[in-house]
Each structure stands twice: as C-alpha cells, then as structure tokens.
Amino acid sequence: MKNIFIALLALLSVSAVAQSTFKVPKYEKFQLKNGLTIYLMEQHEVPLINVSAVFDAGSINDGDRAGMSMVTSDALLFGTEKYTKPQIEEAIDFVGARLQPFTAKDMAGITASFAVKDQEKLLDIIQQVLVHPVFDKTEFDKYRQRTVVELAQQKESPRAVIGHYYNAFLFGNFPYAIPGDGTKPTVEKMTSDDAMAFYKSNYTTGKGAIAVVGDFKTADMKKKMTDLFGGWKTAGARMVKRVAPNLEFEKSRVLLVDKPDARETTFLIGGKGIDYNSADYVPVMVVNTILGGRFTSWLNDALRVNSGLTYGANSRFTRMKYAGTFAISTFTKNSTTVPAVDMALNVLDSLHKTGLNDEILSSAKAYVKASFPPTYESAGALARLLTDMYVYNFDESFINTFQSKVDGLTTEQSKKIIADYFPKDKLQFVMIGKASEIRDQVKKYGDLTEKQIKADGY
C-alpha cells in the first residue's frame, strides 16, 4: 500500500503539466570540491523526494566484457560497508520507497523515490550504495547464475534481442554495438572483483552527477549533499576521446538470423539516425510521428489496420551521445514476410515522394505538443532530465524552446528534414525468422549475411 501511495503522489506532482508552454522549473547547480556535480530543484506539490545519480559507466565502457556495466550497477545494491543486501531491501520496503540501478549506452547509476519523512534513512542508504559498495561475493554469484539463465532464455524472444543484432550490424567496431545486458559467455566469467574494478574505474566524481528533486529547502539539501558526498574520493576521471561512428553505408545489407522454429519474422529496417544533441531533433520527431510514431501513423495504418499483416508497426529514432539510429519495426507471419517488408518500404518511399500537407503536419504538431509536457509530469522525470542534461551536455533551453520549435515547422521545411534524416536507399535490414522459408525471398533487399540465433553473441 505504501508503494501505491507514493506512486499516486508522484503522478500528482509538478504543476507545470497544466501549463500551455512547458518550462524547466528553477533549479540550482553546483560542484563539490571533489568534482561531483549536484542539481537541486524544489517541488513542493507532494511530500516526496526523487534522486537520480549518473556516472560515465555505461555499456560503452564494457570493452570485451559485454554486460559489465549492467552487472556492476545491479551489484551496487548487494551490500555496503554499513548495510547488507537484505537490510537495504527491508529498509526500502518498510517505508514504501524505491531504489533502482540502471544502465544505458552512455551512463549508469541509480534512481530513488521516497517520502520526505524518510529522507535521512534513504539518503544514508544512497550514500552507502554509491560510495561504499562491497560487491558481496555470495550475492554476486547468485545473481550471476540467474542472469546467465535469463540470457540463455532471452533469444527465445526475437523482439527481446533484435535490437542487439541491429546495433551490432550497424555500429560494427564502435562500442554502441555492445549488448548492454551482456552475453552468456561474458557474464558467466564475471566475478565480484571484476565489478569492483569496473566501479572504481568508472564511478568517479569527476564524471558524475546527482540530481535531487522534491519537497525540501535548497539550502538544507545543499548542506546534506555536501556532508554526504563532499568527502568521497575516487580515481581521477578517465579522458576517453571517441570519434563518432560512420553510419553512411555503401550498399543495402541484410542480416538474417535463423530461428528454425520461428513461425513469424521480426524485422528492423533503417540506418543512420541522429545523435542526442541534433539541432533538428524536434522537426525529426514531428515527422516521425506521422510515419510511425503513433497508433494512427502511416506505417501502422498500412501494415495493421488496412492489410492485417501485423499487430503493430512503428518507426523510431534512438539517440545516443555520439550517434543514433533510425528503424522501422514490426513482425509478421513467415508467409507474409516479403509483403510486409515491401509495404513498409512503400510507406517510407511515399514519405519522400508525397511529403506532408498542412493538415497532416498540423495534426502531428498538436499530438507532439500534447504529449510533451507529460514527459516531465513527475519529480522523478525531472530528476532524470537534470542528469540527462549533465550526460548529454545540454541546458534547459533545449526543453524551453521545444514547443515553439514544433510550431515553427512548415511543410516546406519538412521536405528537407525527410530528405536529410529518413533514409530511402542503402537501407540496413535485420530479420529474425525461419531462414529456410524466407532466405531466397529476402536476398533481393541487399547483400545477405546469415547467423544462427543459438550462436553466442550478436
């Protein structure tokens, strides 16, 4: 009941949702002497506090040990110098709080949510988890065994793994190709000492930030955060120079992943997208809403509503720090693989040939503007926004000008956006299905490479 109560409070927070033009609420940003960046934002609508902590510890740093970032972030909660894993779990459950680790390509860390009255205990636990994790060997070994089993089962679901194949196919040797949750061979070799070593190298104050959003006074919280984290000494921040990967492909290619017992084909079609800080993100988002970003999109109408070839089709841009991808995504019966792929390609082609009229564009703009403020309707979402600002190096103007940029998009401008960011040739195809039934048919889409889904890795 306490968890439900806190969840309901979170949904009621942040009055900015009701505003016609969303602006990032006022916040304070400062840096501790050890280099750790702190964001504080007061939100007094409900008696909750939300925390987001991020570090340069994402899967981009995994190297040849895919999954190391995820395993390390999960293992932060396996005990500290002051609390055992059961004690952490009991304390959190007792007050209906939430404390969760996470990892992504460019970052890893934790998020938390708790009632104001429980802040002393929860902030102490958070400090212990971040500053004094012990990576208990017994807990780690049990976790590793469970994870290896889950990874072995994961490939039974094409939709759960096709993104890994797609990233590996597009990014090649760039570390965004690394599957964030690892592979069975890499994870089964990991030890608690490996997690501790990854933690010491990547959870550094010089490349870390903590955002606190909720019902508190900034001066009071500033003192608490300084007392809790001001004495944290870590290794120096690593300076890794990365060059954005080249996603300009010379030809169309097809990766066919054979799943002999498959009764349907799951596929992605696409190519180069945009990085996180692309100046054209907003117009790209509006145009993609029309193509495949909502239920009434052209792709879903064509493949689901009008033809019944699938239960759903969409398109999306996945943005990361150094690069991004574009993909059309759906699934269909083995026997309708080619009709579904051809129809998806026809819809994409029509976007280029026909373009958008004022009525279609106005509908998409209204949809995007209505959807935008609720993205930041909770204090937890605002905390994540602040740490995203740190990781991706943007400021509040990116958010504050969002709706005006939506309004400013014209049909003439949309033509350039379509031409620049929605690939129409040299497409990359990843298909998971029964190769014996579809191999000869899908060769027409590009140079064919084949893998077995039961083979290790992606």
Automatic annotation (TrEMBL):
Peptidase M16 N-terminal domain sequence ranges: 48-165
Pfam family name, one: Peptidase_M16_C
Ranges where the Peptidase M16 C-terminal domain occurs: 189-366
InterPro entries associated with the record: Metalloenz_LuxS/M16, MPP/UQCRC_Complex, Pept_M16_N, Peptidase_M16_C
Key words of the record: Signal
One Gene Ontology molecular-function label: metal ion binding
Protein known as: Insulinase family protein
Species: Dyadobacter luticola
